[in-house]
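Hi P.,

Sorry for the delay on this. The queue was packed all week, but I finally got your sequence through. Input first:
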Amino acid sequence: MRTPFVAGNWKMNKTIAEARSLVAEMSQALREIKNVEKVLCPPFMAIFPVAALLQGTDIGLGAQDMYWEPKGPFTGEVAPEMVAEFCEYVIIGHSERRQYFGENDETVNRKTAAARISNLVPIVCVGETLAEYESGRTEEVVSRQIRMGLKGLTPEFVEHIVIAYEPVWAIGTGRASTSENANTVIRDFIRKPLAEIYGEATAQAVRVLYGGSVTAANAVEFFSQPEIDGALVGGASLKVDEFVAIVHAAAKRA
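Then the structure:
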């Protein structure tokens, strides 16, 4: 059985002092929850202090992005090895990166391949926009993002990555997908192309999360679905009680 996985994406929130305070408030409660892989993804500036606070715990640390080159004249970017000094995970291809910063399937592929070289576990995000959803293009978009985003990667690496299905129309809107719809998308448009490319065993080994207005109130419903292995949590990860409750809900799945 796949181990449940819950990651908190803090996005562009929390100063270093605020990040320390948030981790201090939630870390003990999170440490008491077993059988769930728990990851915090603060902004780059807060990674070092958060890493110090998480040292010796079973709570993982992730970055929200990275560049694919190992070093060079890329002002403002952060290399994989720089991330790997402190983090075990990195979010790649989040819809906000695609929408505001020009990310596409090609850059997602290059970053995912670079993560492998640096022994980082990529959390690869896929999902359709509202226009694509309403025009019935979910299968076309999501399966393409899977095929192109993971192109050229080995089955041995792919089975250790994490995929997050985040319908863009549900992120930060309070309008979550239904659990049944998310389960269907993951089963038919994510695991199916994975199986076609890498084999059924690899497709079944990959953990696939749901993201998009996940809260303590709806987490149990999502985690009751057989294809949903956890959540990539946005706004609720900034609220101690909410995030801890979501992780508790994932633990019940285990």
